Amino acid sequence: MVAQGLSAITFTKAFQMSSDPLQENEIEFTLDEQVDNKQLQAVEDVLPTHLNILPLAQRPVFPGLALPMTFSGKQNVAAIKQIAEKEQGLVGLVLAKEYDQNEPDESELYEVGTAFKILRITPIAPETVQVIGQGLKRFRKRKVVLVKPALRWEVDYHSDPKTKIGPELRAYMMAISSEIKSLLQLNPLFQEQVNLVVSQLNYEAPGRTIDVISNLLSADSEQLQGLLETFDLHERANLLLRLIKEELEVARIQKKIQDQISETVNQQQKEFFLRQQLEAIKKELGIEKDDKESEVEKLEHKLAEKELPEEALKVVKEELNKLRTLSVQSPEFNVTRSYLELIAELPWGAYSEDIEDIKRARVVLDQDHYGLEDVKELILEFLSTVIKRGKIAGSIICLVGPPGVG
Would you call 339 helix, strand, or coil by DSSP? Predict the structure, then answer.
């Protein structure tokens, strides 16, 4: 049977996502459809030499693992339905260098892919279906048989040797196992999946084990495609070990950053709560007032000394009450405090005695400002009018002059 060892367990894990009874328009297959009950022949051993090809956008699929996948696009969905009806659910999955779900270009596909057995098809949106299936075996393109209406290749399959592994390959597998366990400690997101892999590591079937682990990596698509195209077991194990080490280094850096951020946040939270507790204790014991209350009281005393008009006094009282309710950490607290400080600095009720002397005004203007005769005449005319009328009725003078004249 094909669903054996690690593949069977990982398939069960993936299939849990859609273990509900079949809904309308769902199509389901079983691995036993391709098995002769008398001979118990595995599906991999009876794969056809011609396969319909579906392009993949993000990463290749490796043999040995059951997983859910989503396909979008009118052409892809139609091809999957045809495969389900006429090809016993067998299809070739090939990574595309440049992906277009509506018009996939055969020249943009890599030449090595994976034969895939579709087990269930579920429509999830218009022109989008979820497919659950299992990767079976690597293949390499021999030639293109058909392009329209569906892409079809003649392929050559690759099987890993079943001879007893030597000490070098066994050492690779032990190193891979060790690195995977280290990765698990740093990145618990895939803990359940990696635990499943580690518990089923089979040194006597290194090819299958390497492929299953490869499915779990988050390396980029080109690196994963390189793994898929590496047929030699020693080279494949060496490449996988390098990719795991790279992922392990990234996980270490990520954990270091997360720990630093967590430590900073925890320290800030600790200081905040301690300050809150300290303020509460001081208030309870009557030792001293907190900083905010002292600051508000100082502002209140300053403003009380000013001869504020009734309208300004009303606004000041409202702002002081608001300031008492705001948290010191609030941005609005600083804005309100600055506003009240500005009001407290203004010379409310302080008036100077007006000197109604035009000649003296002319002397002061000439001493303080050079030139600008027109401007000086305007100012003197304004002062003359004020002296004659005895009051200023909201007049505003706008004076403009070159730099350096005061």
Answer: helix
- What is the spatial distance between Cα 322 and Cα 337, in angstroms, rounded to a whole number? 10
Q: Residue 92: which of 60, 122, 59 has the closest Cα?
A: 60
Contact residues for 282 (Cβ-Cβ < 8 A; gap 6+): 288, 289, 290
Q: What is the CA radius of gyration of the chain?
A: 41
What integer is the mean pLDDT of 24-44?
43
- The Cα 69–Cα 88 span in angstroms is 18
Contact yes or no for 170/237 (Cβ under 8 A): no
Structural tokens at position 191: 């803990």
Query: Strand 50-56 to strand 90-95: parallel, antiparallel, or no bridges (unpaired)?
Result: parallel
pTM for this model (two decimals): 0.54
Cα-flanking dihedrals φ and ψ of residue 59, to 5°? -155, 155
What's the pLDDT at 191? 62
The β-bridge partners of 123 are: 129
Which amino acid is it at 135?
G
C-alpha distances out from residue 126 to 23, 52, 82, 99, Å = 16, 23, 17, 20
